[in-house]
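User: Can you predict the 3D structure for this chain?
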Amino acid sequence: MPPTLDASNYPGGKKSLAGISLRAFLIGTTLGLSVALTVALVALTTTPLWRIPFFLSSLCVFHFLEFYVTAAHNTRHASVSAFLLSSNGWAYNIAHISAVVECLLAHVFWPTESYVSWTAAVGGVKLQVVAGMVLMVLGQVVRTVAMAQAGSNFNHTVQVERKDGHTLVCHGVYAVLRHPSYFGFFWWGLGTQLVLGNVICLAGYAVVLWEFFHGRIKREERFLVAFFGEDYERYRKRTWVGIPGIR
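Assistant: Here is the predicted structure, written as structure tokens:
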């Protein structure tokens, strides 16, 4: 069942619920249109530009799930910001715009060299596209499951104080991955660029995401050690991050 939201849960009451409803409506509408366009381009044309609406639809799914899972498992923090539409700052939006621009420019100026042909591969799909989709599904599933399993312990911002009820989550996906939501977003992001066929943005996403998560994990783990002491140290030794070069 969908989560039940109460205006009393949010600063600003009904105004916040109106903001949530508006964003959900816009995301849902955009998702429907982008999926329809993706299907139409794949079924009726040979253009590789189906990737752009596909990318847009994946963004819609990602941002909707960020709010929905928060509302279902950590309702107290299910505010407008839980959609993560603007809280990641201007660099986040520029990165996605750049990905779309590179995909368009590659199609215009290098239609065969830069793009992965939809038909020139085993079963009609090139391995690059398949690999990208696999990473996207893996990343999205791991992140969503991690948020659900962490429940009220999950937060989109690094917590600097241990609050009542804050526990060390070690079960489920957390039994293997120490920061599964970061793992999920890292590989999901790289997967989107493989599907788009981008070269520059793939490298850029890899560098920027690695730098971001390296710094964030380092900072977050200082607080986790302070919160949970030896319990976290033992937990850290038996789990891994799953992002190359980050231990």
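The CA atoms of residues 31 and 94 lie 20 Å apart. The two ends are 38 Å apart (CA to CA).
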